[in-house]
Write a structure and sequence with these properties.
Blueprint: E1 3-7, E2 10-11, E3 20-21, E4 24-28, E5 31-36, E6 44-46, E7 51-54, E8 56-61, H1 69-73, H2 79-95, E9 98-103, E10 106-107, H3 109-116, E11 124-127, E12 131-133, E13 160-161, E14 163-165, H4 169-181, E15 187-190, H5 209-221, E16 226-230, H6 233-242, E17 246-249, H7 255-263, E18 267-269, H8 272-280, H9 287-310, H10 330-338, H11 341-356, E19 373-376, E20 393-398, E21 401-405
Parallel strand pairs: 1-6, 2-7, 8-9, 9-11, 12-14, 15-16, 16-17, 17-18
Antiparallel strand pairs: 1-4, 2-3, 4-5, 7-19, 10-13, 19-20, 20-21
Helix pairs in contact: 4-5, 5-6, 7-9, 8-9, 10-11
């Protein structure tokens, strides 16, 4: 069993408190036993020159979209290649300093279980299985000429399931029960159109309040929650009134919607990194997608600030897609420009842990918590660009085990 002290680092504990120098972290087994002074003669891990934070948490990932969407859905890629891309992104995520993620649609329990078993390097994965969407809604990526009845054939049992289609409360009830049967830990619904969508517009609202409420009731019955993909205010308000607990993206949140979210303790997870990534590749996108991306970029910033001003808990998610997801820490770099580096870190640690319902175990450097820690070769609170550079995560400890140490 592990029993060592991490000494010599600057510690930013994720609580929002100022960083401190001269303290050490005592790791016993997979937990933090104490934070203080290492006794004389203790076995130590020298972290001189590093800034240590809690292991970062990304509350919005899509490991199931680790390959290009269209080729992967048209069976132009083998299952072996799809799995390889997913496994690679799991490892890239861990190496970037993220020890926990919430997959918000596209995988099933199979990927989470092989990572948890140690067969694949990666972060702790909380997952919702397939996204719940309406026919023709965001998440229904089929070509226009493909019969809707064929959509379920795109799933790869044990690896990937993009979405289930529901039209009406009873079909929703059946699909979310099936989703939980497959091992989902929470539910994700698409209640507005999206940026990278096939058949809809961002201004579209999707699912009725009654349909959303059925999913909420089924989640509540299992002691868990519903989060929603949502951009426009009408869709967000429908979801809040139906009992959803979290909003993803929120690019049109105004003061009234923010106040409604705060009154109902509904959290927000902005996703700036994916929008920036899309903007930087805008010439390769269809014109309508590029246009949507530009409007959403400033909208997410405005929505984030409105939510923060209203007292909404604001988490952090990258929403990256494709085979190269190394730079998900860029989300914190972008957030630091909107707010400040400490708030960005707080959102990606303690606040995300609260949103995910795991704050008793992770999110801060405190005695009793799981020893998930990231040691940065620079100080990300002074230079937030450090968060977005995967090589700057020099030391990564997950559950008390050193899983990356590039100083050796």
């Amino acid at each position: 069993m592990a029993d060592y002290w991490i000494a010599g680092a600057r510690i930013a504990d994720g609580t929002g408190a100022d960083p401190v120098d001269g303290q050490a972290i005592h790791v016993v087994g997979d937990r933090i036993a104490a934070v203080g002074r290492a006794p004389a003669g203790a076995h130590t891990l020298d972290a001189e020159g590093l800034t240590i934070t809690p292991g970062l948490i990304d509350a919005h990932v899509h490991f199931g979209l680790s390959s290009d969407i269209n080729p992967s859905l048209r069976r132009e890629l083998s299952v072996a290649e799809l799995a390889a891309d997913m496994f690679n992104n799991c490892g890239q995520t861990l190496d970037a300093g993220f020890t926990t993620v919430r997959d918000t649609g596209g995988i099933d329990a199979g990927l989470a279980r092989v990572v948890a078993a140690g067969k694949v390097r990666g972060p702790r994965i909380l997952q919702c299985g397939p996204v719940q969407c309406q026919t023709g809604g965001h998440g229904h990526f089929a070509a226009e000429w493909e019969p809707t009845a064929d959509w379920c054939d795109h799933s790869i049992p044990g690896l990937r399931s993009m979405s289930l289609l529901s039209d009406g409360p009873e079909q929703m009830r059946h699909n979310v029960r099936e989703t939980f049967r497959r091992g989902a830990g929470f539910l994700k619904l698409c209640v507005t159109g999206g940026v990278v969508s096939t058949h809809d517009k961002i201004s579209d609202t999707q699912f009725t309040v009654e349909e959303i409420a059925v999913a909420v009731a089924e989640a509540n019955a299992r002691g868990t929650y519903v989060t929603v993909h949502a951009h426009n205010n009408a869709g967000i308000r429908n979801a809040v009134r139906a009992g959803a607990r979290c909003v993803e993206h929120g690019s049109e949140i105004d003061e009234e919607t923010a106040a409604l979210m705060a009154a109902n303790d509904v959290a927000l997870v902005p996703t700036l990194a994916v929008v920036q990534a899309l903007l930087e590749n805008a010439t390769g996108l269809p014109a309508e997608i590029a246009g949507r991306t530009a409007s959403v970029a400033q909208g997410q910033v405005d929505g984030l600030l409105a939510a923060r001003a209203a007292g909404v808990r604001v988490g952090s998610g990258s929403d990256l897609i494709g085979f190269d997801q190394r730079h998900r820490g860029r989300e914190l770099t972008l957030r630091a420009k909107v707010e400040d580096p400490m708030l960005a870190l707080h959102s990606a640690t303690r606040i995300n842990a609260e949103i995910l319902g795991i704050a008793g175990d992770v999110g801060t450097i405190e005695a009793g918590k799981i020893a998930d820690l990231t040691g940065w070769s620079g100080d990300p609170l002074r230079d937030p660009g450090v968060f977005g550079a995967p090589g700057s995560a020099a030391l990564v400890i997950q559950g008390g085990r050193v899983v990356k140490d590039v100083r050796q």
